[in-house]
Design a protein that fits this description.
Elements (H helix, E strand, L loop, with lengths): L4 E5 L9 E6 L8 H10 L1 H8 L9 E5 L7 E6 L10 H18 L4 E4 L11 H18 L5 E6 L2 H11 L1
Parallel strand pairs: 1-6, 2-4, 2-5, 5-6
Antiparallel strand pairs: 3-4
The structure holds ligand AR6.
Length: 168
Amino acid sequence: MDKRIELIKGDITTLAVDAIVNAANTRLLGGGGVDGAIHAAAGPDLLQECRNLNGCETGKAKITRGYQLKAKHIIHAVGPIWYGGHRDETEMLASCYKSSLEIARDNKIKTLAFPGISTGVYGFPKDLAAFIAVNETKRFLQKNKYPEKVTFVAFSDEHFETYSKLLD
Ligand code: AR6
């Protein structure tokens, strides 16, 4: 496995990294899944900062502080909804990872953690999503010093196995 890439199974809201990525929606005002968990753990000041961001386009990302999280920052990325694969979903998801990594680099984030963006309510196939996540990240790390280390966070054993096979 690439020394700058790590895989863990667990809850991304508990990680003491420079930034965790949120799987948000275009409004950036919270929601269910990992977004709900991040807002609940970070506290109400996060929503206040998010209100000033005026939302975010699909395939892009925006950064906030981490508030009550152990993570210093949150990069809110908006993944695509899966409609079957013919609406540029793969390009959108790749763009989501790239935008998040660019924001991390520009903010000199050393340690960054990603959940499986779009693989919950948004219905993106987990194996294809993991392939895109790993591919975009490896490509970015080859060209950039920051982030120094990227952690993929799987929320289930099955999701962990999916990443594990790709990273071996
Ligand atoms: N830590 C790590 N991964 C998690 C956690 C957690 N605490 N909780 C869930 N996951 P989802 P999406 C995994 O549905 O598909 C929200 O309402 C989960 O198992 O959170 O991008 C937003 O507001 C799955 O693999 O995000 C949007 O409206 C992955 O995180 C919409 O859902 C993403 O699942 C975004 O949908």
